[in-house]
Design goal:
The protein is of the alpha/beta class. The longest helix is centred in the last third of the chain and has 18 residues. The radius of gyration is 18 Å and the shape is globular.
C-alpha cells in the first residue's frame, strides 16, 4: 500500500507548491493513472515515493516504511521494491537486450545461474524473447520500451512507476505498451502508477484516474476518464 498523508513539497526560492496537502491511498495490486499537464505534480509525486525528494510536510508510506525517515544508506534497499520506467527508455546502448536486463540483477549481486533463468522469462513476458541479442539501436521505440519494462520488473518489485512511458511513441506502440502494462498488472499483481497527459491513452485504460492541477488532487475517480 502507498499512502500520502497531508503531503506538501515546495521548490524554488519562492517556495512554489509542487505538491500541496495531498492525501492519497493506493492499494496493493491497483492500476492508477496520474493525469495533468506538465508541472501539475505527477513526477514530483513519484519522486516522493522513490525518496528522490522529501516532503516538507506530511508523511509518505510504502507499506509500513515511512519514506520521509529513510537515511541515505537505506535508499538502495527501499528502491529495490520499486521498478521505474521513463519515456526515454534509459537503456545502455553498448549492451544487448539480455545484457540490459541482466545488468539490473548484476548490480544486486545475483549469480549467473539466476540471471540465466530469469532474464529469458521476463523477455518472454514482454514479448521480446526473439530479440535477446539485439542492441537498442536495432530496435524500434516500442521494442526498447518493452526491454525497459522487463528491466524494471526483473527484480520483482512491488510497485512499478511509469512516468510518461508512451511519451516518445507513436499511437500504435503507445497502445501496445498500455496493453502490456495492463497484462502485467493483471498477471503479476504488480501495483502500477502510470503518469501521462495523453487523454486518449487514459480513456483507453479504464482504470482509476487521479487528476492533478498545480500540485493538488482535483479529482479521484474510478470511471477511467481524463477530466480536468
Amino acid at each position: 500500500m502507498i499512502l500520502f498523508k497531508n503531503v506538501t513539497k515546495t521548490y524554488g526560492e519562492e517556495q512554489s507548491f509542487a505538491i500541496e496537502n495531498v492525501n492519497l491511498k493506493i492499494e496493493d495490486g491497483e492500476f492508477v493513472v496520474l493525469v495533468g499537464q506538465s508541472g501539475a505534480g505527477k513526477s514530483t509525486l513519484m519522486k516522493l515515493i522513490t525518496g528522490e525528494q522529501k516532503a516538507e510536510k506530511g508523511e509518505v508510506f510504502l507499506g509500513k516504511t515511512r519514506i520521509n525517515d529513510l537515511a541515505y544508506r537505506d535508499m538502495p534497499q527501499h528502491r529495490r521494491s520499486l521498478g521505474i520506467i521513463f519515456q526515454d527508455f534509459k537503456l545502455l546502448s553498448q549492451k544487448t537486450a539480455f545484457e540490459n536486463i541482466a545488468f539490473a540483477m548484476e548490480i544486486l549481486g545475483k549469480d549467473a545461474s539466476e540471471i540465466g533463468r530469469k532474464v529469458p522469462r521476463f523477455l518472454n513476458i514482454v514479448g521480446m524473447g526473439a530479440k535477446a541479442n539485439k542492441f537498442p539501436s536495432q530496435m524500434s521505440g516500442g521494442e526498447r520500451q518493452r526491454i525497459a519494462i522487463a528491466r524494471a520488473l526483473i527484480n520483482e518489485p512491488k510497485v512499478l512507476l511509469a512516468d510518461e512511458p508512451t511519451g516518445n511513441l507513436d499511437v500504435f506502440n503507445s497502445w501496445d505498451i498500455v496493453n502490456l502494462l495492463l497484462k502485467i498488472n493483471e498477471q503479476l499483481k504488480t501495483t502500477i502508477i502510470f503518469a501521462t497527459h495523453n487523454k486518449e491513452v487514459v480513456n483507453s485504460i479504464n482504470k482509476r484516474v487521479i487528476s492533478l492541477d498545480k500540485g493538488k488532487i482535483i479529482r479521484d475517480s474510478l470511471d477511467g476518464k481524463y477530466i480536468i
